[in-house]
Amino acid sequence: MSADALRNLIRDVPDFPKPGIVFKDITPLLRDPQGLENSVRLLAEPFRDANITMVAGIESRGFIFGSCVARILGAGFVPIRKPGKLPWTTRSHEYELEYGKDKLEIHDDAVSKNDRVLIIDDVLATGGTLAAAAALVRALDATLIGAATVIELSFLEGRRKIVGVDFHSVISY
Questions:
Q1: Catalytic residue (choose from 41, 48, 61, 94)
Q2: Does residue 71 carry a catalytic annotation?
Q3: Active-site pick, 11, 59, 96, 98
Q4: What angle do helix axes 33-44 and 61-73 make, rounded to 10 degrees?
Q5: pLDDT of residue 74 exceeding 90
Q6: What is the pLDDT of residues 21-58, one digit of tens each?
């Protein structure tokens, strides 16, 4: 199944979460066994020979795709979460949103200087979340190999916030 075929499994939801936004709903893709398998395969493909030791998935849909990619790459998985969700000591990074601020956290011992990390999420929009995740990985002295998302909303120019990150998306709008 190609990226174009996967595009047919993504549903547009107008005016969600607020008027004027067209939300890209991946639920139909997740529900389709071939769609899920192929999206994960296409996420992992550019990084197969990169000796990834750890995949970091961003809450929450990044957990779904990231854990599957970790399995394909023979790597471990670590969650990057919203504040107050991780039970151990954490490192945090605050970032700007178009409508305010947000924060992400990672366990202090999630990755180390010996790790080669790939960050996975479902969508790259404005880039703030992915840039914050990259900052967290780098703050723990791990080597950030790259990042990948199922969807890139290229018209929002999120890549501008992740300069220096080898980025791959399966589907671009």
A1: 61
A2: no
A3: 98
A4: 70
A5: yes
A6: 999 999 999 999 999 999 999 999 999 999 999 999 99
* Whether residue 98 lies in the annotated active site: yes
Q: Note down the domain range covering 58.
A: 49-172
**Confidence (pLDDT) at 172:** 97
| 59-72 CB burial, b ≥16 within 10 A, e <16 | bebbbbbbbbbbeb
In a domain, 10, yes or no: no
Separation CA 102–CA 152 (nearest Å): 20
Spacing of C-alpha 86 from chain mean position: 18
**Which domain CATH number covers 158?**
3.40.50.2020
Length of the chain: 173
The CB density around residue 166, as the number of other CB atoms within 10 Å, is 14
